[in-house]
Amino acid sequence: MFQSTSPTRFDLRFSIAGIPIRVHPLFWVIAILLGSNSNNLLMILVWIVVVFVSILVHELGHAFAFRRFGQPSNILLHFSGGLTIPESLPWGSGYATVSLTPNQHIFVSLAGPFAGFALAALTLAVGTALGGQIILSTLLGFIPFPIVLLPYGSGMLNEVFLTFLWVNVFWGIVNLLPVFPLDGGHVTRYVLIQSDPRNGLRTSLWVSVVTGGLLAVTGLLVMNSIYMAFLFGLLAFQSYQMLQGLSARRY
Predict the structure, then answer these.
(1) Do the beta carbons of residue 59 and residue 84 sit within 8 Å?
(2) What is the DSSP string of 162-224?
(3) What is the pTM of this model?
(4) Which phi and psi angles does 98 have, rounded to 5°?
(5) 230 sits in which H/E element
(6) Per-residue pLDDT tens for 156-177?
(7) Minimum mean pLDDT among 34-43, 75-84, 147-156: which range?
(8) Ranges of each domain in the chain
């Protein structure tokens, strides 16, 4: 689900700061489906643009973090979101990738969500500069969530700001959850591997299975979101399959 997809002739290709970016056509399809709960065609378009910009900024966070450690990468936006893929470097008569330390892996993993949080902070700053008022609300009744309300008569612009904040704050928090292969799952993996080299990987996968299962139930029963239930249920199942693979290799 979170693997690279084969190129197509319909891919959108460009680069930012020397980082190659490819957008698979299914990315647009999923973005449209996720925004289809609105009956306003303009708001669906706004949603697609916000999702595109937000996921791109997230992946650029990973890519620039890779670059900091001498590892080039490219970005793929596809049906399940985004992926930053390390590239091989010429080495002697062949190719090799840069070997990162566990702490460097953690830094790269955290760079994506925090790039999104920075974009959310920029959204709040711009909204305030335009005369808006920042109000602290909550997500799911307990997660602090800032919104910015512009002066009366700026309804559509308010929706744009709110969508930017929702995507970058909410999905940034979701990405930090200890579910593999989300960024929080990678962080958990490298933290536990350092503290327990023998069983750290297995423990991180169990954390992913339990957390993913609980989030799947929460998505269905609390958020009424079939998408969230399916996503985290699938991720929990994938982590369980990886655990089974580890057990098979032991014997």
Answers:
(1) yes
(2) HHHHIIIIIHHHHHTSS-TTSHHHHHHHHHHHHH-TTTHHHHHHHHHHHHHHHHHHHHHHTS-
(3) 0.87
(4) -70, 130
(5) helix 226-250
(6) 788 888 888 888 988 899 899 9
(7) 147-156
(8) 177-245
